[in-house]
Structures are given as structure tokens and as C-alpha cells.
Amino acid sequence: MDMHDATLGDGPGGPPFPAFSATAVVDARGTVVGWSEGAERLLGHSREEAVSSPVDRLLGPDVPQATGRLLARSAGWSGTAELRHRDGRTLPVWLEVHPSLNDAGALQWLVVALPADRVTASRQEGRPGGPAEETRTADEREADRRTAEEAFLQCRLPVAVCDERLRILRASDGLAREAGLAEERMRGLPVTDLLPTPVRREVEAGMLRVLETGEPGRLEVHVGTPAGSRERVWSVSLSPLRNPAGRVHRVELTVLDTTEEYWARERLALLNDVSTQVGSTLDVTRTAQEMADVAVGRLADFVTVDLLDPLFRGSEPKPFAGTVPLRRAAQASIFPGVPEAVTEPGELDYYPEDSPPAVCLATGRPSQHSVLDEAVVKWGARDPSRMGTVHRFGVHSIMAVPLRARGITLGVAVLVRHRHPEPFDDDDLRLAGEIAARAAVSVDNARRYTRERATALALQRSLLPQRPAVQEAVSVASCYLPASSRAGVGGDWFDVIPLSGARVALVVGDVVGHGLRASATMGRLRTAVRTLADVDLPPDELLVHLDDLVAHLAAEENTGTEPELEVVTDLVATCLYVVYDPVSRLCCISSAGHPPPALVTPDGAVGLVDLSPGPPLGVGGLPFESVERKLPEGSVLVLYTDGLVEAGGRDIDTGTDELLRVLAGPAPSLEDACSTLTRALLPERTTDDVALLVARTRALDADQVASWELPSDPAAVSRARSMASERLTAWGLEDAAFTTELVVSELVTNAIRYGSPPVRLRLIRDGVLVCEVSDGSSTAPHLRRARTYDEGGRGLLLVAQFAQRWGTRHTQGGKTIWAEIALPGPAPWS
Fold first, then answer.
1. CA 20 to 30 Å from 8, out of 59, 265, 402, 653?
2. pLDDT in tens, 544-579
3. Residue 234: burial class (beta carbons within 10 Å; 0-12, 13-18, 19+)
4. C-alpha dihedral sign at 699, 702, 708, 709
5. Handedness of CA 285, 286, 289, 290 (dihedral sign)
6. What angle, 0 to 180 degrees and rounded to 10, lies between the N-to-C axes of helices 426-463 and 284-295?
7. Per-residue pLDDT tens for 687-742?
8. How many whole angstroms separate alpha carbon 519 and alpha carbon 456?
């Protein structure tokens, strides 16, 4: 509160006063919060010394005892007192204390001190508010009244004192200027007559409440203005005035124009909302839409955000010239359905090179325009549909603001006003530029994320099987869904691996973590599983070797946190490995910390395979177990990663129950089963990758398999060739007889010559013809280069030349040498 000195003359018949008065403001706690130059000249204390000091320190020795009583009173007071000068002497003064309210509505006192040349003897025993007040002459009281009158009349704030019927009794000079009426003309008028119609009822209710309760009040009223100017905001303070009996019989109304402060707060609030609401995701389109939604209704009536097309692919925009093609990323309007738009989101829009948006993009500077500006008129002449929208909605003001971040121009935002009466001004342009700058950083972050995510996805998809491997043991359907959160792609994978003997391996795994490193590790593990599967290891032994590999990989890398990858680099993975044999219909399953597969049998029974999962890969030193189960033909195995059952914050048990419930429903095909599971179990946006593999088992008929026990005698080779030829004739495969007899002859000869009994021959007619020879020896054969005069050493070389594939697998009783021979014509399952 500003403190102004008052110039006083001599009161009639009273003591001559100096030509200045001292004023101060004291808050409810007795602390000085205002100090005038007159007070500094009177008492010698500078403003810096006085403000924030207790008022007791400035009073004479006889006053502090009554200070508490003085400050506890809410009514005005006047009387004589002594004040303490800075040099220690006391000064006799005449004090007037007037209660008022500060800006926060709290009680405070305006203190006016008038020095006197002499003090009567009776004042020596007086106290503030005590008998000394009775010694004042009429002239002194008149002088005091004149002082208070002058202070009120010359107040620059609009202030009115009203009676109980809200009629104006007194009005300040500030109110007279604001209302355009002299005080004499305002007296007797209802104060609400001076107020705009929309706020009369609100102010009247507030004043009546103050008269009734005696409690001060504060209102913020918004006053409309003529078209083309900003709405004004007033802070209205209402204070009760009491008579000597303590009853509220007047109300004081003080009005303060807070328009600039209000709009400054609104601008700060809008910028704060931009910081908190824009950039909630790393999606370019959604980030642009968030910017449009924040700005519309508060800064503009219609907002569009157009971005350069490469941004949607995560690429960095290249320099441009001439007509600029932009893709509509977002738009928002105060009207439902955004009727002002001439371009739909996702469509390309073309801005002529001399149009405000194109110039804004080229220069990187925002601009504001009236629709009558030459640049806008020329733009409208080239684009009649856009100009038609301008006329139809009454657009009168436009801003074009570039979206730039890290030195890159990303696009342009166009803000339009048609219902808001005020045109855009320089403050609006600066505010729009600040909004666009903050939003542009979020858009660029989304662009960078899109690029990195596309790179990671491309890497991951290149490591996953592009199409199911050709095999006849099971029919399969699969899907892989990357996480949609900013965590990035993960290390989930699946695979279908054909094995010897018409068998197949089904694999699902998950590397803990997200990002490029998880994808790269997944690719290494998938390659390792395929390599180990070619060796035809049992599932539990394969997981042991895979666990050793993960431990070696972890030892080669530095553990810790990679800030750029945002993943924990401790290498841990889970894996589920399933081998199915269509001949025996046996399914062998082993798990390394992975959820067990679900099984749906042809009779409709649904459940999880009873499996004890081993430790995750990378823990090391712990065994893995396998379970075998004979499956009816047509059984469906469902292998999945935990992202499917734990999506949406579910615990794994709840998610597994939901999985089984969905599987119990009908599914016309395996592809439909995949779609149904993902739709039912996954939310719109997932936080983890999901790999899903669904397989329906097949079984080979008994007439598709032939096997014989052979004696360990070289003469049995001829008999083996004959039995194989007869079986091929029965199967109608005479065209494959020569190759088959050659392969059988060489494999049986090797088993008898280098192996040990028992020797067994088996033929399997599937998509290919599988020839298997087993013996009791664990020694594996290998190819070698035979010299010119060697009598042997060419058998396996011949098998390798005539067979599609060949190999060895070890069993508990020895080994099996197998070869696959191509069959003429379509496969039996086609």
C-alpha cells in the first residue's frame, strides 16, 4: 500500500501543525508493513529499518502496555500518544488509527501521526483510547476529520461507502473517474447501478452477505468489453464498517483492475498445461493432437497442426522449396466435428510458397494476420474452398506458428479466431510461439522414438521366422505383437523347427528387458536353439546347453544399466521347448522359467500341461526336467509369453484363468484362435511384447510307417534292400526305389560294420520319405575323403549326395542315422 504525505494547515483555534504528517501501516500481528517519508522525517527511522519491525519498538515508554488492546480492536481510534524517535527522545503526537483490509482480505491498520507543539498535563496520565481523548478541542477534532476526509476523497482506487440498502454515501476520486460521474451525482444511487449488468447480482449478494455476517469478502468479476478488446477483470474487496455500538451499518466497496494480472496467470496456466498434457506418449500424431486440444478454446477457436511427411516415418525432414506438402496431424475446434476443417487428419495439404504457413515454415518465425491482409487474400484466391470456410464461419484473425526443435523445422500450427471477438495480439503471438516450441520438442522426441522403434522392430522381425517351416507333424498359427509403450520392443520370440523322424520342435522364449539389446540377444538365443535342435538333443539337455550359453554371454558383457537402451543389462531369459512325434504321438516338454503351455484336447477339455518349470536361463547350476504326454490327434497346444497373460496389470494366475476361459470357446481355425486370444486378453496399448504360437497335432497312420529288426550280419543288407523296395511298391513310390535302396544299403552296412546290435531299419512316408537305421553304438559316423584305392569310406558321401538331408541323433540305447529322400508328386497332406 502506497503511503502519501498529507499537507496540513493550522486548525482553527488549534495548535499549529508542521506541514507534513507521518503515515504507517500495521498488520494484525503488530508488525509494520508500510512506512512513509513523513514517518521517516518525524521519527528518524528509514523505511528499511521500520518495515518488518514490531510497532512496539517505535512507541513511547507508556504506550506498549496498551498496544495489544489497541490492535485487538477492529474499530477506528484517535487520541494523543508519545512515539520514540530514533535518537531516543520521545515525541508527543496526535494518532488516528483506521482499520482496513489488505489485498488478501486480512485486517490491517492505517496509522496517521500529527506532531503537536505542546501536550496538556492531563495527557501524561492518558493512554490510547483513555481520558486524554476527552481533552481534545473541537478544532483539533475538526482538523482530524478534515485529514481523513482529504485522504478518502483523494484515494485513486475506486472506493464507495454504502448504507444498508446499498446506496452510495461516499465515493472516492478513483470511483468518480471510473464511473464518469462526480461524487455529488453518485450519492444516493444504488451502487449496482454503476456496475455492468452481468455482475450486478453477484456483487449485490456479496455486499448483503458482508452486512449480515460482518465478515469481509472478496470477489473476482469479469466484465465484457466492446468487440476487439480484451475482457476486463476486477478484484472487488468488501469490508464491513461498524458504528460505535459495534453493529455493522455500512459496507465499503473497493475495486481494483486486475486484468493484466489475470491474463498473465491464464497464460502461465496454459503453458503449464502444455508441459503436463502435451507429450504424454511417444506417438507423433497423438502428441500433435494434444497440442491442438490444449490451445483450442483458450487461445483460439480452431487449431490445425500440419507436419512434414517424413516425420511420420521417423525420418528427419529435408530442405524444401516452393509449394509445401504437409500432412494433417491434428485439428481441434470449439465446435463438435471440427466443421471448419478442409483437410482430414492423415491427408496431405498443400500450402503455396507465399502463403503465411509456407512463409512461416521457410523463415522459422511466427506471424499474425487479419483476413484482410494481402497475404491472406492472395492465399484465399488460390484456394477458394478454404476462403469459403473463412467467410462461412466469420474468421477474422489468423496466426501461423512454426514447430521447430533442435534446429529442425517439423511443421506448422495455424490458429484461428472466429467466435472470439478479439483479434490476436503480440502477447497471443508470443504465447503461441512458446506453446509451439514446447510441443515441438515432444513431437521431435516422438519422431526420434518412431525411428528407433522402427529400427528395433526391423531387427527383431528379421530375427523371427518369416513363415512357418515346412513340416507335417503339426499345423501352426502364430503372432508377434511388440509393446506399444515407450519401453520399446522386447526379446520375445517363437520358432517352429523340423526335426528328424518327422518330428517337430515348438519354441517360445523371452529375454528380460526391452530395446535393441534385448532383440539382439533374442536373435542369438534363437540361433543357438536351432543349432542345438539340429543335434537332436532331448528338451532338458538342450536347455542345459542353452543355460550355459546364456551364462557365457553374460560373462562376456558388462552388467549394469545402459542409459541409452533404458534396460537392465543382467542377462536373464526364459524358454519353453516342446518336441512332438507324430508317429508315437508323444509330446516331450521342458521349461526354463517359462509358463507352461495350454492344451485343448479334441473332446473339449482345456487346461495347462502339468509341468514343473526349471530356473530361468542364466541362473546356472540347476537341472531341468522334462515331461512326456501322449496326445490325441487334433490336440491344440498354445505356447505364449507372459506379456499375454499379465497384460492390463493382471497377476499371472488371473491372466491364465482368462486364457483358459477364452480357449474353451469355439475357434474355426488356428488363426481365429490367435486373434480371439489377443483381442480378449490384451488392452489397446500394451507395455510388454507378446509372442503366441498355436499348434494342432497330426498323427501318422500305421501304414505310413514300416520297421524291421535286422541281424548283425552283412547278408542282412540285401534283405533290407528287398524289404524297403517291397514297401515302396506297396506305397506306390516305385520312382523312389533306386535312391532308397542305395541309402538303405549304405546305412545298414555302416551299422553292421561299425555299430553294435541291435540294428533296426525304419521307413516313414510323410512329406518326404524318411529312412532311419539305428544300432546300439554311440559312436557317430562322419564324412571323410576316400582315397583312390580305398575299398570303403564312400557310403556317407553317397547318402549325402542322394538325400535331401541326413544326420545323426543319439538315443538312450545308441544312435540313429537318418536321411530324408524327396518324393515325386504332391505330398500326402496336400
1. 59
2. 989 888 888 777 765 444 444 444 446 788 999 999
3. buried
4. positive
5. negative
6. 160
7. 788 899 999 999 988 889 999 999 988 888 989 999 999 999 999 898 888 988 89
8. 7
